[in-house]
Amino acid sequence: MSTHPRDESDAAAAAPAAKRSRLESVDEFYETAVAVAREAGATIRAAFDKNKSVMLKSASTDLVTETDQKVEAFIINSFKDKFPSHKFIGEESVAAGIQCELTDDPTWIIDPLDGTTNFVHRFPFVAVSIALVIDKAPVIGIVYNCILDEMYTAVRGRGAFKNGVQITTSQQTAVNTALIGTEFGSNRKDEVLATILENMRSLAGEPNAAHSIRCLGSAALNLCAVASGAMDAYFEFGIHVWDIAAGILILQEANGVVRNPDGTELDIMARRILGACTPQLADEITSRIKNIVTPRD
Ligand code: LIP
């Protein structure tokens, strides 16, 4: 059962045949993505309180479990069955050596379990993140916090929703009244960590100190927190396209702004993100943080 209102049904009826069939496909893609995210979430929830065998990827701070791998395989197989011509970018497939290439073709970008460190420690900010990207722009974004049962959804042009209720960002325009999300990430090399801490200090310290800083441990859920007004902005360096593809659309559809942290137009493969409730807050954060250079996805 859909949690996303179909407020374009009148438009669909009036549209020419080609456009109508595209709108109908979007509805089918959306319904499938929500159902798959729910089923994936049930698998994660069942494993959440159990002992996990934890493996390392790029560093001792970059974790993966059997559940990440099992859930990604389930999600990709589910979409392949229904939409055989579509392409995929999945976190664990890329970790296993599959090329991370974004073309203009319809591509499902999947993080089966965003917040793996949280999952390992039973900190309940764990999400299934699924985006459908067409012509390199997200068209559908689903982020499901399967532990708290919070389903964030967006379809381009139709608004953003949390458990079926429309969400919008807060209206904060300045750092000194804002709650700001950021993360330590998995690269803890000395010079990287120094810039991360310097950026936190620049925002959390006087003058014009932010109300506070939060680290939820999931890029997807940080973006949804900004989308729903629970935080005012979020930025991070070193994330991957699968961490942010769905959350970007949810934040845009909730009237937020997404950019590269240096203020330029967002490049979703550039492994950096700044999301904010207003352009003014985004501008101030940009002026107060330093860039961290990372290789592209
Ligand atoms: C996580 C991100 C988080 C980042 C972590 C990690 P994962 O994704 O969502 O924002 O700080 O280093 O990349 O690995 O749990 O899917």
Automatic annotation (TrEMBL):
Signal peptide interval: none
Classification via SUPFAM superfamilies: Carbohydrate phosphatase
One Pfam family here: Inositol_P
Sequence similarity: Belongs to the inositol monophosphatase superfamily.
Reaction catalysed by this enzyme: a myo-inositol phosphate + H2O = myo-inositol + phosphate
The protein's name: Inositol-1-monophosphatase
Listed pathway(s): Polyol metabolism; myo-inositol biosynthesis; myo-inositol from D-glucose 6-phosphate: step 2/2
Gene3D superfamilies for this protein: 3.40.190.80, Fructose-1,6-Bisphosphatase, subunit A, domain 1
Ligand binding (Mg(2+)): E91, D111, L113, D114, D243
